[in-house]
Amino acid sequence: MMNPQLLIAEDEPLLAQALLRQLQKRWPTAKLAPIAGNGQEALTQALACQPEVVFLDVQMPLMTGLETAAALVEEWPNTNVKPLPLIVFVTAYDQYAVEAFEHSAIDYLLKPLRPERLQQTINKLQARLQERANQEGQGQGLQSFQGLQDLQEALQKITQLRTTDTPPIKLQTIQASRHTREGMVIEMIPIVQVAYFEASEKYVRVVTQTHEYLIRTPIKDLLPQLDAKEFWQIHRATVVRVSQITQVLRDEAQKVWLKLKDRPERLLVSRLYSHLFRAM
Amino acid sequence: MKTSAQKQTVPFPKHWRGSWQGRFLTMLVISPLMCVVLWGIEPSKTLHSHKRLDVNLVYGMSTSLIIWFLTDVVRLWFFPRHRKGGAWRMSWPLALFLLGAITLGFALGNWLGDLYAGRSTYELLTYAPEKFMGFMVLTFAISALFTTFFFQQNRLQVAKQQADEATLKLLQSQLEPHMLFNTLANLRALIETSPEQATQMLDHLNDYLRATLSASRVQMHTLATEFERLADYLHLMRVRLGSRLAFELVLPQDLRENVIPSLLLQPLVENAIRHGIEPSSHGGTIVVKATQIDEPKPHLQLCISDTGVGIAKSGASRPSRQGTAFGLMQIKARLQTIYGAQARFALKANVPTGVIATIALPLHQSPP
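Output (structure tokens, whole complex):
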């Protein structure tokens, strides 16, 4: 990999420029993609130009760096033409993120950036890219997703840390509104009846054995209010009741699907969470 | 208040100041003094037609201390909010309570005095009713005077406490690691590329931090000063957010000297940035505007509007939201303490997006 492409996602322009200059100076062979100013832009750009390395600011508008990383993993094309980019998180100070990163193999940088520290990170990235180049052609598919478990664990840890800091009340009932001929009706759904939650556009679908309801609370706000032992996140958009899962299937495209007890449809497990479903 | 000089000369533990111990001590010192003075003015015609100072002292001190005990200590027990550090606001139940307490204290004080003197004050009702009435009026007048004084003292103390809290809250938000390290990171970036701009940014940061630290010493300052502080803060944020932040500060010349609680608007502007502009990809504009409104009564209107992402979208379960709610409650509490029903605070959605915060205040050229 002679000329790797780097993408910077940072919402504060001066900081983005500073990182860009440092990278140009210390990694002259690298090509720098235009700066992405928010999480959404970072995702679109990363999918379009398929860089080797992405620097993600943790606090950004629209999508945080962590959400961007999760989305990138899920939406990265499955064709294996290019391996998933190496991700480096950049943060001024996110107490929870730093704590989660510290105990994992995830690369992160603290703002203000120290040139020595950045140089270390660059050296590490270069070594990893070199390693990848050497292994090219020999089973690169699996290798390219190394570090996914780290990422998933860090994301889960951050949710946990946030939850223990301000423990929300665990949900017992889901209140979903529905329009009927008599007007607006609020349905009270006991949480034990819920098979899974699935995000779509603006809503989250609440699926029970027999019915479907729509609520407006996003998945990320719902998660801390659910019992982590009863409900697992298996995709950016899906949270499933563990006791509903009967079988885990892996298809020829290496995609992982779940079969449920009470529902006929199968649920897709994203790459980020597929390590949760290995045989004992 | 003028009493502050006198207060400093009275040696009692600092934490007694503004507490019931302090007020008890005040009463213990002042009530015999008052008795002696009253006795000295007209020794022959004191209300109990007594020439003896000791009898006068017993009547006067027992009445005043009992009334103090009922209107202060017993009141705290009946009005739990007064105990919990809230400002003592006059209300109908409170006025009735005070009236009852003073009447009861008057009766009990006389009873004690009568026991000592071996006669009955109520005999006065038959042979010198005007004296009895005079005694009663005097008791009520003195009680009203002290109650007003203690209430005023409490109001000032609570206002000071809330101003301190506001400053502390502000310091916390400035020293909040995310804000601090991002500001420093920007400064570091500017030093390399544009030392001149870096110096400017450092000056703003300097002024801003100094203002916050010294704000704890003044509870009220002029709108001109308040707007300068807002400008410092917004300039800092403008460096960080670049073209995503636009702002406008509108302060008419004739309102510049108007006095408001110090750093009252700061948390609202901070909220506008943190929950409105920062989470938005294209940013927005913050407008801070002071206007004099003449209808129905002349008053000052302060308006902070932003075109950011708005209330609903700023993430209902973000961890910072609790802090925000606390900030808004604090503004309300401060307004309530200083202005009572004369001030109003409202928060509503801006069109098409964003938030408008409006504060209505009485016009004041000097501290109220």
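The longest strand of chain B covers residues 284-293.
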